[in-house]
Design a protein that fits this description.
Order of helices and strands: HEEEEEEEEEEE
Number of helices: 1
Radius of gyration: 13 Å
Low-confidence stretches: 9-20
Largest sheet: 6 strands, mixed
Number of strands: 11
Shape: globular
Mean pLDDT: 85
Strand content: over 45%
C-alpha cells in the first residue's frame, strides 16, 4: 500500500506542472500529463504513456506500447509489444501487429493487460 501511495503522490507532484503534453518524435509518440481523454493514430510508431488517470485509445499499428504512471485506461488496436509499469493501469488490445500474441511485460502493481 505504501508503494502504491508513493507512486501516486510522485505522479501527481511531477505532472501537476503540465496538464497534458503529447509529442510526435521520429520513432515514437509520447503522452504525458494528467486526466486526458484522447484518441491517437499511431501510424506505425511506438507509444509511451506516463502521468496519471488518462483514457487513451490508440488506433492503427502501434508496434511498441509502454505505459507507466497510475490509473490509465488504454485501448490498443494493434501492438507487437506491450510493457506496463506503475500502478492500477488497465490495458486492452485487439490484435498483434505481427499476427502473433503481443509480447506482454507487466512489472507494476495491480495492472491488467487483456485481449478485447
Amino acid at each position: 500500500m505504501k508503494r502504491q501511495l508513493a507512486a501516486f503522490i510522485f505522479s501527481l507532484a511531477f505532472f501537476s506542472l503540465a496538464a497534458f503534453a503529447a509529442s510526435r518524435q521520429d520513432d515514437k509518440i509520447v503522452i504525458t500529463g494528467i486526466d486526458q481523454d484522447v484518441v491517437v493514430e499511431c501510424e506505425g510508431k511506438g507509444v509511451e504513456v506516463s502521468g496519471s488517470s488518462h483514457k487513451i485509445k490508440l488506433i492503427g499499428n502501434c508496434p511498441d506500447v509502454k505505459v507507466t504512471g497510475t490509473g490509465h485506461l488504454v485501448s490498443i488496436e494493434r501492438a507487437t509489444s506491450i510493457r506496463v509499469g506503475g500502478v492500477d493501469n488497465a490495458i486492452t488490445y485487439k490484435t498483434s501487429s505481427n499476427g502473433k500474441r503481443p509480447k506482454i511485460t507487466n512489472s507494476g502493481v495491480n495492472n491488467s493487460v487483456k485481449k478485447e
